[in-house]
Amino acid sequence: ILRVQPGWDNCDEPLATPLSHQAFTSSSMFTSGYAPGYAKLNRRGGSGGWSPLDNDHYQWLQVDLGGRKQVTALATQGRYSSSDWTTQYRLLYSDTGMNWKPYHQDGNIWAFQGNANTESVVRHDLQHALVARYLRFVPLQWSSEGCIGLRIDVYGCAYWADLINFDGQGVISYRFKMKKMKILKDVISLKFKTSESEGVILHGEGQQGDYITLELKKARLVLLINLGSNQYGSILGHTSVTSGSLLDDQHWHSVVIERYRRNVNFTLDRHIQHFRTNGEFDHLDLDYELSFGGMPFSGKPSSGGRKNFIGCMESINYNGDNITDLVRRRKLDTSSFRNLSFSCAESHTFPAFFNATSFLHLPGRSEHHTVSISFMFRTWNPSGLLLFSILADGTLEVGLSDGKVSIHVDVTQKKNTRIEISSGSGLNDGQWHEVRFLAKENFAMLTIDGDEASAVRTNTPIQIQTRGSYYFGGYFLRSSSPPMQRSFQGCMQLIHVDEQLVDLQAVEQGKLGDFENVSLEMCAIIDRCVPNHCEHGGRCTQTWDSFSCTCDGTGYTGATCHTSVYEQSCEAYKHLGRTSDTYWIDPDGSGPLGPFKVSCNMTEDKVWTTVANSLPAQMPISGSSREKRMVLQLNYSASMEQVTAVTSSAEHCEQYVAYVCRSSRLLNSPDGTPYTWWLGRGSEKHFYWGGSGPGIQKCACGIERNCTDPKYYCNCDADHKQWREDSGVLKYKDHLPVIQVAVGDTNRPGSEAKLTVGPLRCQGDRNYWNAASFTTPSSYLHFSTFQGETSADISFYFKTSAPYGVFLENLGNTDFIRLELKSPTMVSFSFDVGNGPVELAVRSPTALNDDQWHRVSAERNVKEAVLQLDQQYREVRPAPPQGHTRLELYSQLYVGAAGGQRGFLGCIRSLKMNGVTLDLEERAKVTPGVKPGCSGHCTSFGVYCRNGGKCVEKYNGYSCDCTSTAYDGPFCTKDVGGFFEAGTLLRYNFLPEVASAAVMEVRSPSGTLGSEVNLTREDLAFSFSTSSAPCILVYISSRTQDYLAIVLRQNGTLQIRYNLGGLREPFTINLDQRNMANGQPHSINISRVEKVIQLQVDHYPPVSYSFPDASDTQFNLIKTLFLGKVYETGQIDPVLIEKYNTPGFVGCLSRVQFNSIAPLKAALRSRVSAPVSVQGKLVESNCGASPQTISPMSAATDPWHLDSAGGDFPFNEERVVPDGVNRNSAIIGGIIAVVIFTILCTLVFLIRHMFRHKGTYHTNEAKGAESADNADAAIIVNDPNFTETIDESKKEWFI
């Protein structure tokens, strides 16, 4: 049999069977042959064991061990050769045979599993040993075939300890051998028991302000320690730590304090708290003495006002000295004790424990005109019935309501009279509270905790006459005036009725009153919030049966505030489809690091995380020297541990630094002692600067060999009187961030410097993409045992094409934890913590073996177990109200196949267990059958690439290629647009004469590229906003008479003109019902397939139009696309030139796309040469952007309204293309333009005159040239060969 504590191996002697018959007692016995003395393991005396007279929950078997013993195990049998046995029982223990304490395990009053027959022995090794003289076995369930039957034995060993009784006056003074002690290491241990909630257990102090105090406050143990504060008070050493609860229960509690320098282990009843003291000092400086049991009489007045300890202590040890033994041998000063006693003065309180079905019925004086009741109670429940009594002509109810004691007296004399008074607050805090109620003629008073000053009185005229019957803790009888509450869960003691203390022992013996389901001589209260299972600062609240956690404001969620509500990194947010913004991240998930804010910049191929610092840019520095450097401390928007979590998982980090100087040297390169240095992570000094690397005492110019003075490796080190600068990026991420800069050369005359340290920028998240591919069913990775005893969470991504497989597994003796793909649509989470296997299963409506990433997260804590799939499908299973709660695992953790289970085939990524990311890739490098990394991210994440963007695979993720779209940004969702001034035009040449056809991105209908393109289908999409009309929005020309034009007419309505040949006039679509030149954004989508056109405007449904039968279906030899204005040298519709081309479009165009061409984006963003040119000024702006399609909505919520556009109208980000001109030179440019325009007009006149005489122009002139009323119409001709017969410089006539 496994024993939890190895030290118990020598403490396993049978303690009960050697005892005499008289050591065994019981609640009752069936006959003398069933006496408790026969209840010895494996004995057959009498009738073969103990059986009580009645079979109910009030029976018990008690054994007196003859003295305090250490008990480590129990064993039970049924009654010999019978049908009587006990299947479940509870264990109570006590030093005195009174004030029993139930055995606790896993935070509950434990119920031991008993026998299933009469002969087999069931033994339980206790999870923790107990020390007691009396043990009481209380049967809870028994044989369905017979009655209660029991034989027992108890295992353990002798226990002896010196103990001292403290009466509240005496204090033990332990004098040091030296007057002043400078202590680096302390070990203090003791045990205590008390019924008081306040009292000093030990205290020591020094004249320098150091102190150590251990005291009870509100029945909690508080350790106060101060190793010293500095003289300025800026570093405070005071540290306070609280442990335990309900320590005034008159039972023994064990305390151990271990301190080494500032590190402290504080242990109370096996619960250990580790902490570091505040301040920066290591020694505890104490003067003269350490006192036990109270404050020393020589103590400072400031330390007064604290109560001395009342109760017992034993086994007091201080740094190896046995204090209790020294007291017994009179080696220590005990003169303050009136009567030094080495035995405990036992409390005479007799508690009663009530559950939801209990009541205690007590008699009182009847036909009396005074009610006098007092009692003490403790509970966690905010409400409950404390007392109910039926009066001769009414009722009296004392209840607890919302933590207050409320009295309701109803008297139905000649007229109805009602008294309602209440007092107190927060009385459901688990502490003992006293209630006193006195009512007599025309007077009632309620007093809480003896506070007479706050007693509530009423002088309502009332006549009370008692019936002498009082129900405490519950009332379940039928009544015409029942109480508002029926029951109470908690404890009561010191009950007084009619000013007489009730003898509860007489009640237990049946001599006084009666009761139901009340446990006398014990208070089984449990503080379920100590230790606090609410993590990350969650607030614990409790009732009698359970606790709950409030996680508001913590950044965590779940039953115990275990799981972070935030993603682990900017990378994770990007792959949820988020764009650049400020986000909260939590790199270690459920780990100890809290969430913090960072700036996330999602670029096309990278994700940057930025953590800002407190140093202003260009921080001026003066008056520093090598001897007295100016030290600049940088504070970041996150703690150093949080920043380290970012840098550790990042692929690359950098931080910009700049030192602008005048007569101020930086590093004194190459080999001298540097004037300036900086501290990085770990407070390590570094002597290199931005652009250089670790160990190289140089600046960027020294690395690149272009410093101002080649003799130095930094520009500033030349010590010039002119302003110089050394700047660059620090890239060694293990040294980042910069937390301090010490500058040492700005104190000479004329010396000046300015320092800039930019934010920390990190790119990538290796933890998020840390993956392994399992290529065979038997392949697995193994890691150290998972430690998740009371709280465990596991999360990961997987993708597979296999129908089943085990993701991971970890085993214990009987405990285990396993996550598994059970079928193509089901993931299961199974575990056993000692209560039997539990399995949670979540089903997906679609197959999970679709080779796409799926996210699994599982959590198990003392409250519940949760399994979640893809953040949608979820199952929650509450933990049983009583049972084992600790998950005890011993084997290695296996990821993949293990223990003959069905192995997993596929990829597992970003495996996190309790906030720690397992390095799958590193382990996979040395494991056969497993490969590091995983390909195929686009199958899952490609959906995030919008608007035709293509998903591109990367080793550690994916990116969206927006090249062939009109959009930009990490997901191809950012509109690329521009603001057109009057006269601005954009020209995109599909067939430039010089360019190679191989680089053209124009697709023919068959999908091939070619220089001669005839289209039978085209797609055109764009959005715009303007307030001026008429104008040309888009015009696409050809080498023939074919063209496509989208224009706004004079009244602002939209017209689409198609000319594909075969018709005398262009095919025209007019949208007459709406003015679109209203300054609001509008979107246009045109799609043609042969003779059918689909047109969608804004959010309205698409409308189909058909060309006449005579129309051609091919758009022949497309040539050029124009935006904003047309300037063409081929054939053109004169109506366009006459009505729409002057002065040109003024407004915004956005996301223009024609088939696979994005002309506006090519002009504004293209990093390679594109066949696009701009005349006039084009400023980048998204003021024409609008959603492509939304559902119809009311005008009040219409996003096309200018009000909705907000600050984005008319410009968002201004960016002037290189062809553009600066606004500051607009006036000069305007004058020059007028002069050039005049000259050109003269030239045009002369050329027309020349060609008319030669006859070459006149014969090919456009039909409408004679009647043209402006120069545009007159100049542009429709001869397809014209551009090939004149010089290139003569093509563009219009500016």
UniProtKB/TrEMBL annotation:
Q: Does the keyword Phosphoprotein apply?
A: yes
What SUPFAM superfamilies does the entry give?
Concanavalin A-like lectins/glucanases (SSF49899), Fibrinogen C-terminal domain-like (SSF56496), Galactose-binding domain-like (SSF49785)
Domain (EGF-like): give its ranges.
Answer: 525-562, 935-973
Question: In this protein, which residues make up the domain named F5/8 type C?
Answer: 11-157
Pfam families, alphabetized: EGF, F5_F8_type_C, Laminin_G_2
Establish whether keyword Membrane is in the entry: yes
The principal localisation class reads: other
**Membrane-protein topology:** Single-pass type I membrane protein
Indicate the segments forming the Fibrinogen C-terminal domain, all copies. 561-611
Q: From which residue to which does any coiled coil extend?
A: none
Stretches assigned to the Laminin G domain = 163-344, 349-523, 770-934, 987-1183
Question: Where, subcellularly, is it found?
Answer: Cell junction, Paranodal septate junction; Membrane
Sorted alphabetically, the keyword list is: Cell adhesion, Cell junction, Disulfide bond, EGF-like domain, Glycoprotein, Membrane, Phosphoprotein, Repeat, Signal, Transmembrane, Transmembrane helix
Annotated GO biological processes are: cell adhesion
State a GO cellular component annotated for this protein. paranodal junction
Annotated disulfide bonds:
907-934
Q: Which domain of life is it from?
A: Eukaryota
Membrane spanning segments where? 1226-1247
Q: Which CDD domains does the annotation name?
A: EGF_CA, FA58C, LamG
Spell out the family assignment given in the record's similarity comment: Belongs to the neurexin family.
The protein depicted here goes by the name: Contactin associated protein 2
Organism expressing this protein natively: Scleropages formosus
Lineage of the species this protein comes from:
Eukaryota, Metazoa, Chordata, Craniata, Vertebrata
Q: Which gene encodes it?
A: CNTNAP2
